[in-house]
Specification:
- The protein is of the alpha+beta class.
- About 20% of the residues lie in helices and about 30% in strands.
- Strands 8-9-14-10-11-12-13 form a 7-stranded antiparallel beta sheet, with no helix packed on it. The protein has a 3-stranded antiparallel beta sheet with strand order 1-2-3. Strands 4-5 form a two-stranded antiparallel sheet.
- A hairpin with a 2-residue loop joins strand 11 (about 220-230) and strand 12 (about 230-235).
- The chain is elongated, with a radius of gyration of 25 Å.
Amino acid sequence: CSWIVVRGSMIVDGYRRSPWELKKTNYDQRTTNNVQRTTNNEIPLPTDNFKNLIYNLSTVPTRTRRQREVLDFIIGYIDGHGYEPSYQLIARELGVSSKAGIAKHIKALEEQGLLQRRRENGSFKLDVGRSEVIAPSSFEINWLDAPTNGFQPESYEAAPFALPLFMLGDLSPKSVCAYRVTDNSMSGKNICEGDIAVIETRSYLRDGDCAIVSLKRKDTILRQYYREGSQIEMRSANDNYEVLRVPGEHVKIHGVFRCLLRPAT
């Protein structure tokens, strides 16, 4: 029997496997280039140091947004309750229609080495391999779902994009989204048309906050927010743009500006 280490991953029967999925198999000598072989009756179980080496050498596969949500929920539930949630509970909390959908995501996470399923007392248990997984250095950011003022979205707005975690400071990745700036009303703050504003999504603002709001459910703008009684003033940082005054009930707050990305030209 033998096992293969290729760039820190386990290849067994032609499939990439996590260290927990090692199974006995036979390989022809012709297929053992760059192969580490053992000839005893049992496949050696990897030590903790060896598992760490496996994950440090490998590139953690990209997870889908739903897979990350499933993994985050499982980790949070175990931390809070001391035991793992059922498939039915995960499906209900994440709005998935069936347990089969959750089982598919858990299988994918298991293949990535992030979870291990084991049968105990006639049911499946889940073990989270958090200590062996490299902490991610980036996260996926989605675009703000808001009226576009009649502007056609750019092609890159069709999908989320990756952003380094260090840009967030103390913010949670779950609390941010992106917005493409559509005018130069905040050019005095060096926020220009075409820039990508990263915003912290929240429903409250303080006077002077640079914020993204929708007016009367049709226009979305980025300006400085001020409240004057029942009226909201959205002030620009460019003398060519007038102050907008709108009743508070016609203003939907999306969030507050946190940082800026500027596409290369």
